Amino acid sequence: MAADSTLHLAHCLASVGVSEILKITERANALRRQGADLLVLGAGEPDFDTPEHIKEAAIQAIRAGQTKYTVLDGSPALKEAIRRKFARENDLVFAQDEVTASAGAKQVIFNAMMATLDAGDEVIIPAPFWVTYADIVTILGGTPVVLPCHEEDGFRLTAEALEAAITPRTRWVMLNSPSNPSGAAYGEVHYRPLLEVLLRHPQVWLMVDDMYEHILYDGFCFVTPAALEPRLRERTLTINGVSKAYAMTGWRLGYAGGPKALIQAMASVQSQVTSCPCSVSQAAAIAALDGPQDIVRERCELFRQRRDLVVDALNAVPGLSARRPEGAFYVYASCAGILGRRTLGGEVIDSDTAFARYLMDEGGVAVVPGSAFGLAPYFRVSYATSREVLEEACRRIAEATQRLLA
Ligand SMILES: Cc1ncc(COP(=O)(O)O)c(C=O)c1O
C-alpha cells in the first residue's frame, strides 16, 4: 500500500488559525476585486511614507556595501543607537549585550518566548490583546491565560486580576501600552500596583511592548516599567521597534532591552531562524533612532485629530459608543447597544463578528470584530488613513447601523 502523502500539520498549529484580521483583509480585497466600493479600516500600519532621511541612509548603506550578514542580533552601530534611544527617551541604561535587534518586534517576541517557554507554561495576556501574543504562546506549547480588562477600567489590567491569575506555572505577563487594539495607555499610576504584585512573585517575568510609545495624545506621559521599578529590571524585557513611529512596517526592524542571559538565549533562537536582521534596514533604523524626531510629533498630531473625528462620529450613532483612547491609532468601539437588532434581510446581529460582517457586506466598511482580540462585543477601527476616508467611513457606519431594525 502506498504511503499517505497528505500534508501533516503540526499539532501546535491546530488552534492557531489564519488571523481574523487577515481573513477580513482577504475578504475585503476579494469584494473590491469584484467591484465593491469598500473602505477598509483594518490596517495596523501608518498610511504615511518612511521619512526621506531614513530612506537616504538605507540607500547610502547599499552603496557603501553594507549588504552582508551582520552580527547576529544587530550590528554594533545599531546596538549603540538602540542604547542611546533607551537612555535618552526611557531613562534605561543597557550594556551592549543587553540589547537585541530582530526582523520586527514580532520576531523579538517570538525569540523571547521560544527561548523561555516549556510545554504548559502559562503566559498572562490582558484582553483585548494583539492576537500575535496568544498565537506565539500557543505555537510554542505554552498556555495563554487571557484576562479580560473592562472598559470601566480603561481596558487596563487591575492588580487584583493579575494577582488572582498568577500560578506556579506563570512564566510571563505581557503588557502593551499604548495598546493595539484598545489604544489604552498605562501611566505610572496604573503600572505601580501591577509592579507591586510582580515584586511578590519572583518567578514571573514581564514582557512590555512599547511599540506605540510615540503615538500618545493630550500630554499623556509615557512610562515604561523597567524604568519605574529597577527591582524588576532583571526580569523585564522592554520591546520596541521602528514600524509604527517611523512608518517603517515593511523594513522589519524591532528591538529590545533586557537581562543579558535572556538576550543571549534569544540570539541563539534567531541564529537558527533568520540570522541577523536585514543589514540595510539596520542602517535605516539607526537614522530613524538618531535622526530628527519632529516628524514623529507632527504625525502624532494628525493621528490625534483623526482619533477625535472617529470617536466623536461613532459616539453620535445611537447604539454605538467609543472610549477616547490615549494613544496608538485604533478606536475600540462597543456595539453592545445594537446586539439583537435585525438586518433588512432578517439576519440577527448577535455578535460583533456578525456586525462586522454586516458592515462589510451591506455598509461598505471593513472593521475588525473585537472577538478577534479576545474581548467582545467591540469592533476596532484603525484610523491610520486619510480624514476623507474616515469621514466617509463613519458616515457609512452610522447609516448602516441606523438601518438595523430594533
Ligand atoms: C502591539 C504591537 N506590537 C508589535 C507589533 C509588530 O511590530 P513589528 O512590525 O516590529 O513586528 C505590532 C504590529 O501590529 C503591534 O500592534
Automatic annotation (TrEMBL):
Taken from the record, one Pfam family name reads: Aminotran_1_2
Q: Which cofactors does it use?
A: pyridoxal 5'-phosphate
Cited Gene3D superfamilies? Aspartate Aminotransferase, domain 1, Type I PLP-dependent aspartate aminotransferase-like (Major domain)
What does the record list as coiled-coil region(s)?
none
Query: Which EC number(s) does UniProt give?
Result: 2.6.1.-
Cross-referenced SUPFAM superfamilies, in alphabetical order? PLP-dependent transferases (SSF53383)
Question: Which UniProt keyword terms apply here?
Answer: Aminotransferase, Pyridoxal phosphate, Transferase
Give the enzyme class: transferase
A GO molecular function assigned to this protein is: transaminase activity
Q: Which family does it belong to?
A: Belongs to the class-I pyridoxal-phosphate-dependent aminotransferase family.
Spell out the protein name for this chain: Aminotransferase
